[in-house]
Design brief:
9 strands; 10 helices; four-stranded antiparallel sheet; 240 residues; three-stranded parallel sheet; alpha/beta; Ribulose 1,5 Bisphosphate Carboxylase/Oxygenase; Rossmann fold
Length: 240
Amino acid sequence: MKANKNQTKTQKLPKNYAAKLAMVDSARFYSLSDAISLIQDLPKAKFDESVDIVANLGVDTRHSDQNVRGVVSLPHGTGKTLKVAVFARGAKAEEAKAAGADVVGSDELIDKVAAGEVNFDRCIATPDMMAAIGKVAKVLGPRGMMPNPKLGTVTMDVAQAVKNVKAGQVEFRAEKAGIVHAGVAKASFDTNKIADNVKVFVGALVKARPSGAKGTYLKSLFITTTMGPAIKLEISSVLE
């Protein structure tokens, strides 16, 4: 008898993932504390996995009054080291370097980005650079890197902006179907730190509810690791 498609897919799963999948009850809604405990009990990968939150929001991002985008500083950082680029000139460029920016430049940096050289994770810019940065909007935009004053990434205080990113500031944005996906911790964090970060992140999502959102806004929440299955969360346990 031939195996059906689902059986074939299951057979192709890595042994470690299959073991993790077997430990998760897909029909259950886990409290935040139980979900974190489960994550910590799952078979470990060979690296420190990221802990991610996936939220399904009741918004239609095709409408401008239902877009969800924001930034939040997590109390314990994300555990990730981000490379930060700052588009600035003169004294502001020097301030950015002193604050720990990994890449700093003006027109020459824009030329590198235009040529496809994007060796950083986040962008910050002074207001006077924005007209020139428009030339590479098609490169930075699809990567979610375009500086934005609403997110604090277009600012004259470049030093503080760099420090915020380095300290674990997380940007979030609802994609198609209202899905928000963000890394909020590392699996090696202790239980309380993961819980704190998750609650602060979800709290920021709730505060970012757009005026056009109707009905249930926070429809579902999942927590997962880089190499692990999604675990459904009781929303009330995250918001308490």
